[in-house]
Amino acid sequence: MNETTGKQGLHAALTGGIGRRAVLAGAGTLATVAAIGFPNIVRAQSKTLKVGVYGGYFKESFEKHIFPEFSKATGITVEAIAEPTGEAWLVQLEQAARARQAPADVSMMSQVAMLKGASAELWAPFDLSKIPNAAKVVPHLVNKYPDGKVSGIGAVSWYITLVTNTKSYPQAPDSWAALWDPANKDKLGLLALVSNSFLLEVTAATFFGGTKHLDSEQGQLDCFKKLAELKSNVKLWYRDEAQFEASLKSGEIPMGQYYHDVTGLAAADGQPVRSTFPKEGGILDSGSWAVTRASKAGDLAHVFVDYMCQPSIQALLSRKVGTAPTIDRKMTDLTDQEFAAVSSDIAPIIPRYDLYTSKSDWLNQKWTEMIVG
Amino acid sequence: MSALVLDGLTKRYGPVTAVHGASLRIPHGQFVCLLGPSGCGKTTLLRMIAGLEDPSGGRLVIDGRDITTAPAHTREFGMVFQSLALFPHLTAGENIAYPLRIRGVPKAEQRKRADELLELVRLPGVADRPVSKLSGGQRQRVAIARALALSPKLFLLDEPLSALDAKLREAMQIELKQLQQRLGITTIVVTHDQREAMTMADLVVVMSQGRIHQAAPPMEVYRQPADAFVADFIGMTNLLEGEVTAPGTAAVPGGTLHLPELPPTGRVLLSVRPEDVIVHPAGMDGPNRLTGTLSFMRDLGASVEFRIDVAGKEIVALSRPQDRPPVAPGGALAVEFPPAACVVLPPMAERPQ
Amino acid sequence: MIRRAPRGLAEHAPILFPALMLVVFFVIPFSLMIAVSVFRRVPGGFYEPDLVFANYERFLTAFFGGVMSFSLGLAALVAALSVGIAFPFTYRLVKLPRRAQIRWLVFLLSILSLSEVIIGFAWSTLLSRTAGITNLFVALGLMAEPQSLSPSFGALLAGLVYQAFPYTVLVLYPALARLDPYLEEAARTLGSSPLRAFFTVVVPALRNTIVATTIMVFVFALGSYLLPQLLGRPQHWTLSVLITDQAIYQSNMPFAAAMAVFLVLVSLALVGLALLAGRREETA
Question: Which residue intervals define the domain ABC transporter in the entry (chain B) (predicted)?
Answer without folding.
Answer: 4-234
